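User: I'm curious what two different proteins look like when written out as structure tokens. Can you demonstrate?

Assistant: Sure. I'll show them one after the other, since each token string lines up with its own sequence. Here's the first protein:
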Amino acid sequence: MNAWLPTAPCTPGTCVEPLPAARTLPRAVLRLTGVAVLLLAGVAVALTPLRGRAPAALVRCWCRWIVRAAGVRVRFTGAAAPSGGLLLVANHVSWLDIPLLAAVRPARMLAKSEVRRWPVAGPLAARAGVLFIERDRLRALPGTVAAVTRALTEGAAVAAFPEGSTWCGRAQGRFRRAVFQAALDAGVPVQPVRIGYRGGERTVSTAPAFVGEDTLLASLWRVASARGLTAEVEVLPALPPGRYRDRRSLAGAAEPPGRGHPGKAHSKSMRTL
């Protein structure tokens, strides 16, 4: 792994609050069963040789159902995302962010190239139009930006998490600039989205965080076992094309105002592309 790759200081041991294991087993099993049923239904639809893509409204509903099945309430605020070529960007906390962002507007996701090699999930991701980025090869970055630019120029929505790493939710990383060059080159708007998680009366819950060496199974179980989780998705005003002259200013404008940057809740330097 190259030194330029973005990393977050968040780890399960230091950032994620433990949840009581007692009395959670039946509820967690029921919730995970619901998630599995919805995922299998989605896979079945994806593998069906139908003409065209599933309606956007159906995809948005399915994404919300996935999150609700996991026991997480969802609250959306803000205006609807515009149609046509669009770059959706959001802060990154959890695997839940992916269906939540797709519920704002179905889009081609920008994902690390390792996903392509995952059994079952890899071929499905490729079939769904995921754009893969080789994070450990800096020379591959211009090609990735060009691929995103083509997709945007063709009128597609592309979703990305420009922090390049997940954070616990109490702090957030700076947005990396490279993907914003594609929006500039394609002349399309950028849609910033802010995602946060609350637990009961607490301001921030780190239970949904998927950070550090955390495993997907552990994160799934933690979310399904939690009580009173709410995902808050704020669709901020879209940034129109032509307003920002370079990717630095565009990335800075797209960064959702957060609960803190790395220097506040964590201390770690990061290089920015």
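Here's a second, unrelated protein for contrast:
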Amino acid sequence: MIRNIHERTIQAPAAQVGELLDKVAIAGNPLWPTEKWPPLELDGPLAEGATGGHGSTLYTCTAYRPGEFVEFTFTPGFMLEGTHTFEVIGKGTSSALRHVISAETRGVSGFLGWHLAIRPLHDALLEELLDNAETAVGATPAPYRWPLRARLLYWTFVKLGLD
């Protein structure tokens, strides 16, 4: 079972961070790090039933509470079977933005794919997304430093388009 969690306290109220989350699939949104990563694109507005993904990672929105919570379920046949979620957690004048993957790998290729390649790239993307959330509310985050393996994988799969 994979349980991969990224969470950051953002110095802004939950309503402000929730507005960022609600726009995550809109072109030009300040949250998704499209300067380095394929955009998150859906076949319609963010809502239950919307399908899409980013790059070769495809999913369907299976739960949505505006400003609070989004759940995406991976498309059948993908190397992971399960969900990934975003949640905004209010903490008074600050809030937390949390992303969780809760999934099983599918077969040997899913297990190896997740552990050797997808996880380092996923971790880098999510840390940049959290940096963007802080920047969007006027904070200056300590930029995420990519591990060497993530940098090599990024250049192999994302920059060269081998995904």
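A detail about the second structure: The first strand starts at residue 2 and ends at 10.
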